What we know:
Layout: H1 6-16, E1 23-25, H2 32-45, E2 47-52, H3 58-72, E3 75-80, E4 83-87
Parallel strand pairs: 1-2
Antiparallel strand pairs: 2-4, 3-4
Amino acid sequence: MTELKGFQKQYLKGLAHHLKPLVIIGQQGITPALMASIEEALHAHELIKVRFNDFKEKETKESLTLEIIKGSGASLVSAIGHMLILYRPCKITEKRKIKLPRTPAAS
């Protein structure tokens, strides 16, 4: 997946604002079941929130985030506090639910 541009991230953050976390990372950390849940959620929704429940250290959250991104092929939209927003478009172009802007909106 190509790197998201700043205005695309802002657009996705706006779409994700009202979403509830679909995946919650607990004490077990990253397990095959957790990665399967992330994969399923990304396939169904393209844009998801992931919440860290038991990890308070910033370095731990960063390493887990990198592992999730590498394993899922998703792009990191935002990581604030205990929440991640991930985006991965559907592989089938006709079935994509989210159409990313190609140019910044004129203000």
